[in-house]
């Protein structure tokens, strides 16, 4: 049984059909890339899976449960986490507080009011920051980070709740080559406990870290398979050649 | 500042002590709005509803049941504010999906307006005239009437409520509120029940407004429909914007300055004082959108810091 199974997902915005019966299946500890030309519906599919958009029709199952009608909060509590395309770290808070905010999301109200988990979570906050090479700046405001560092902070925040599935929407957007390489390195270790769905334009990056790929074109799945299978797929080559 | 406040009744004439007491009660009311707007980002345009409902509630207790004991009146006022806010907040905030700012502000505004109209039209509540001649608050067999004793009572309550709010906004709960205010959608994706957080703060705000309303009713000795209405609800928004929202002390400073300046202006410029006050408010909101408090507090300090750096980390950081 796969970890995530989305099938027959359609999303219509007025007269525009963004998704037309798209599907996505992700197994345990699998890194799955979602690619396709601009406007093919990648981000919309991601949002339908995460609960940021309600699909017009279709079904999403996660860890053997139908979560189609779940709110984002309920999905997060079920073990799903999303990193938005636009960085949405909380700029006025310190890096430390950003991570703490993400970590304490599952604390009870009483624990929050009396700050009972602060001490327990301290080590976790610092080790997350260490893992993402941000520990030296723990007590600076998040707004002072470079764009790439903000993306890392955001990935760290998305991982804080120990999700089973992490959805990353263009994690390397606006990054330098070196930053992209480091991002790939930072993501590798999480494979031990987490699956990943990643929307990305940088095909080299996708090829390096993903096990399987799904290609979308005009709201439909064009192909799905291992990286090697997709690379040799004629129709996939065609849409990328057409774009070039 | 607390010291000045403590010594004030010793130097002020009686009528000024009464005025100062009223300002303190209004500051308590401003604190309730600041918690709701400045910390949880809920635009409540009807905060007077909770203030007034509690005022009317305790006035009725005194008129019809002869209850004036401070130990019953103040908890009852707080409870009335809490329940009213739970009901309205439950309706406005606890949908399956987040409610828009417009919906919440119009909803609270409507609540306040409707309560005002209801009080005006309802004979039992005294109609336009409200409920006059509320007896004094009592502690055992002693009466607490307006003057230095009431002043210290109000000041003590303001201090306690201020400290409790401060404890709350600096806790991990306060960090969750900071997240809520900055990006509600984001924190929902972490697994926070954002609407529940809002409803809780809204209810606490209602309780504090109710406490202030019951103190106000017994201090003034009467209640009338204006204390439920939209104008009074807007007044508290101005106190907080003027002083600086999202800082508890800003709400208090805003109330003291606006009330103090209006008092002085109305004495010296009898005809034009509302215009002068209006211009003053406009200037502050245009040039100091974060309120007067921003002269002394930076943005970082305003938001606060929740995680503490252990000493060695603090030294190691560049």
Provide structural commentary.
The complex is a heterodimer of chains A (244) and B (318). Chain A has 244 residues and is of the alpha/beta class. Chain A has 2 domains: 4-89 and 163-243, Rossmann fold; 91-144. Helices cover 37% and strands 25% of the residues of chain A. Chain A is built from 10 helices and 10 strands. In chain A, the strands form 2 sheets. In chain A, strands 6-7-8-3-9-10 form a 6-stranded mixed β-sheet, sandwiched between helices. The longest helix of chain A is centred in the middle third of the chain and has 14 residues, at 118-131. Chain B is mainly alpha-helical. Chain B has helices at 2-11, 14-39, 48-65, 70-93, 101-121, 148-170, 172-182, 184-190, 194-220, 230-243, 248-268, 273-287, 299-303, 311-316, and strands at 137-139, 142-144. Chain B has a two-stranded antiparallel sheet. In chain B, helix 2 (14-39) crosses helix 10, helix 10 (230-243) crosses helix 11 and helix 11 packs antiparallel against helix 12 (273-287). Chain B starts with a helix and ends with a helix.
Distance from N terminus to C terminus of chain A (CA atoms, Å) equals 38 Å
CATH homologous superfamily label of the largest domain in chain A: P-loop containing nucleotide triphosphate hydrolases
Briefly note the structural class of the backbone of chain B: mainly alpha
Please name the two chains that share the biggest interface, counting residues whose Cβ lies under 8 Å from a Cβ on the partner chain.
A-B, 46 and 35 residues
Please state the CA-atom Rg of chain B, rounded to the nearest Å: 20 Å
| Main sheet overview of chain A | 6 strands, mixed
Regions with little confidence, pLDDT below 50 for 5+ residues of chain B: 311-318
InterPro entries (chain A): AAA+_ATPase, ABC_AA/LPS_Transport, ABC_transporter-like_ATP-bd, P-loop_NTPase
Protein name (chain A): ABC transporter ATP-binding protein
Organism (chain A): Bradyrhizobium macuxiense
Function (chain A): Involved in beta-(1-->2)glucan export. Transmembrane domains (TMD) form a pore in the inner membrane and the ATP-binding domain (NBD) is responsible for energy generation.
């Amino acid at each position: 049984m796969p970890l995530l199974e989305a099938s027959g997902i359609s999303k219509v915005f007025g007269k525009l059909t963004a998704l037309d019966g798209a599907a996505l299946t992700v197994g345990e500890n699998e890194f799955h890339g979602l690619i396709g030309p601009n406007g093919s519906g990648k981000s919309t599919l991601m949002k339908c899976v995460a609960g940021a958009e309600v699909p017009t029709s279709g079904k999403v199952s996660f860890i053997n449960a139908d979560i189609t009608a779940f709110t984002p909060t309920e999905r997060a509590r079920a073990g799903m986490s999303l990193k938005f395309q636009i960085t949405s770290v909380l700029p006025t808070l310190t890096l430390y507080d950003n991570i703490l905010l993400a970590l304490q999301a599952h604390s009870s109200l009483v624990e929050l009011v009396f700050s009972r988990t602060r001490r327990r979570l301290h080590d976790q906050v610092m080790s997350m920051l260490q893992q993402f090479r941000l520990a030296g700046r723990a007590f600076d405001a998040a707004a002072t980070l470079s764009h790439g560092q903000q993306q890392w902070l955001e990935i760290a925040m998305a991982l804080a709740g120990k999700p089973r599935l992490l959805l990353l929407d263009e994690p390397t957007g606006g990054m330098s080559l070196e930053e992209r390489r480091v991002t790939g390195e930072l993501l590798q270790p999480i494979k031990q406990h987490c699956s990943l769905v990643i929307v990305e334009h940088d095909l080299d990056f996708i090829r390096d870290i993903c096990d399987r790929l799904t290609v979308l074109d005009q709201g439909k799945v064009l192909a799905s398979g291992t990286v090697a299978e997709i690379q040799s797929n004629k129709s996939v080559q065609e849409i990328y050649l057409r774009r070039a | 500042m607390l010291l000045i406040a403590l010594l004030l009744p010793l130097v002020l004439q009686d009528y000024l002590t009464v005025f100062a007491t009223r300002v303190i009660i209004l500051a308590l009311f401003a604190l309730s709005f600041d918690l709701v707007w400045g910390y949880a980002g809920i635009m409540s345009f009807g905060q007077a509803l909770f203030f007034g409902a509690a005022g009317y509630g305790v006035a009725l207790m005194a008129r019809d049941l002869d209850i004036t004991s401070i130990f019953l009146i103040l908890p009852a006022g707080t409870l009335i504010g809490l329940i009213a806010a739970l009901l309205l907040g439950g309706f406005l905030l606890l949908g399956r999906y987040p409610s828009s700012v417009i919906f919440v502000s119009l909803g609270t505004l409507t609540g306040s307006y409707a309560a005002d109209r209801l009080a005006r039209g309802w004979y039992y509540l005294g109609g336009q005239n409200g409920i006059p001649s509320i007896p004094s608050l009592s502690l055992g067999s002693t009466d607490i009437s307006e003057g230095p004793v009431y002043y210290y009572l109000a000041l003590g309550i303001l201090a306690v409520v201020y400290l409790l709010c401060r404890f709350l906004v600096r806790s991990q709960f306060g960090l969750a509120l900071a997240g809520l205010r900055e990006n509600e959608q984001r924190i929902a994706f972490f697994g926070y029940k954002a609407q529940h957080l809002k409803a809780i703060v809204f209810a606490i705000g209602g309780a504090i407004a109710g406490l202030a309303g019951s103190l106000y009713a017994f201090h003034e000795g009467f209640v009338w429909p204006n204390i439920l209405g939209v104008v009074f609800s807007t007044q508290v928004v101005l106190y907080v914007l003027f002083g600086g929202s999202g800082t508890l002390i800003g709400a208090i400073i805003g109330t003291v300055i606006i009330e103090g300046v209006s008092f002085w202006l109305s004495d010296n410029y009898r005809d034009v004082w509302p215009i002068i006050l209006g211009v003053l408010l406009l200037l502050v909101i245009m040039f100091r959108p974060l309120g007067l408090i921003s002269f002394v507090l930076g943005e970082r300090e305003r938001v606060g810091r929740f995680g503490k750096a252990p000493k060695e980390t603090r030294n190691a950081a560049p």
